[in-house]
Amino acid sequence: MQGAFDTTAMATETTLLNPRFYTTDFDEMDRVDVTPVRADWDALLAQMKSDPNKGHFKKNADWDTVDWKGMDPALRVEFIDFLVSSCTAEFSGCVLYKEMKRRGTNPDICELFSYMSRDEARHAGFINDALREAGVAVNLGFLTKAKKYTYFRPKFIYYATYLSEKIGYARYITIFRHLERHPEHRFHPIFKWFKEWCNDEFSHGEAFALLMRTDPKLTTSFANKLWIRFFLTAVYSTMWVRDHARVDFHHHLGVDIDWYDQEVYRITSEIARQVFPVELDIKHPRWLPGLRAMDAAMRDMDKAKKKGGLTGWLSHKTATARALLAFAGLYLIPVIKTTPPASVRMEPTY
Ligand SMILES: [Fe+2]
Ligand SMILES: [Fe+2]
């Protein structure tokens, strides 16, 4: 199959929808003082230090043989795309966390980021093992050098990374629970690993929740509330568009994509009440139509780009304007205001 899928190129490409690599102001993050959340911090770090998933990311007897050659070709394309994009996202966390640990001098921060980079390296490596069996592993060393890095101020790293960790948890656990009920749809063994896996993501999210709690302004000032709303809208709508591009993959999983995405938003929003003061109204009558409009506009952008020429350029401009309008429409849906509880810590209970 090598050649048909240049997975390293797929992972390196920078598009609106592909997972990105991030860099930040590491010195500013190194100055974070965790004293205000010390008790919760120490408990969380002790749990991470004990490394409950140390032996988990290894293939064992549960890893059934995968018939890559006999797989429905349409499913194979989308499943490889899913694995590559998941591997890139996991590895993106690994690279960012490792860099923070390497540059930092603050023992609390360095310890946290060393555990988190350890976990993400395992996650990315495990997915890449699955890709290797198909003969299409991503060259992660190359990726570190070739991928473009996006700079985010530390507070944006908190919002974006907190959300992606909690969404990662919600996505993995929702697929895992669904396949528990419908094992006949489990077309690859990797899904059996998702339960313990998502607990790592849950803890990572907890760490960012605590980091945000060290500075109340991050979640209470007027401007920051608008930023949180922006990140929620951006992350949720991107997920919608990305998932709706994988029709065969979800069909084989026996998952209705609309249901799945709404379920992931619901779980993520419920968890995010621990720290975010606003929540998107995913039951609002304009929510689903807005997501569908954005998805349609982004598909048209893609088509126009492939077409090229003057007509392609023109249709690309119109489609971009439609996507922006749809995004603004989603952003302007009135949010639900919530009051984060005094104690921030939560356990994964889904
Ligand atoms: Fe991960
Ligand atoms: Fe994570």
UniProtKB/TrEMBL annotation:
Reaction catalyzed: Mg-protoporphyrin IX 13-monomethyl ester + 3 NADPH + 3 O2 + 2 H(+) = 3,8-divinyl protochlorophyllide a + 3 NADP(+) + 5 H2O
InterPro entries membership: AcsF, Ferritin-like_SF, Rr_diiron-bd_dom
Keywords: Bacteriochlorophyll biosynthesis, Chlorophyll biosynthesis, Iron, Metal-binding, NADP, Oxidoreductase, Photosynthesis
Pathway as given in its UniProt record: Porphyrin-containing compound metabolism; bacteriochlorophyll biosynthesis (light-independent); Porphyrin-containing compound metabolism; chlorophyll biosynthesis
GO biological process terms on file: light-independent bacteriochlorophyll biosynthetic process; photosynthesis
GO terms, molecular function: iron ion binding; magnesium-protoporphyrin IX monomethyl ester (oxidative) cyclase activity
Pfam families per record: Rubrerythrin
Residues annotated as domain Rubrerythrin diiron-binding: 81-211
Cofactor: Fe cation
The protein's Enzyme Commission number: 1.14.13.81
NCBIfam families per record: AcsF, PRK13654.1
General function of this protein: Catalyzes the formation of the isocyclic ring in chlorophyll biosynthesis. Mediates the cyclase reaction, which results in the formation of divinylprotochlorophyllide (Pchlide) characteristic of all chlorophylls from magnesium-protoporphyrin IX 13-monomethyl ester (MgPMME).
PANTHER family in the cross-refs: MAGNESIUM-PROTOPORPHYRIN IX MONOMETHYL ESTER [OXIDATIVE] CYCLASE, CHLOROPLASTIC
Similarity field: Belongs to the AcsF family.
UniProt name for this protein: Aerobic magnesium-protoporphyrin IX monomethyl ester [oxidative] cyclase
Lineage: Bacteria, Pseudomonadati, Pseudomonadota, Alphaproteobacteria, Rhodobacterales
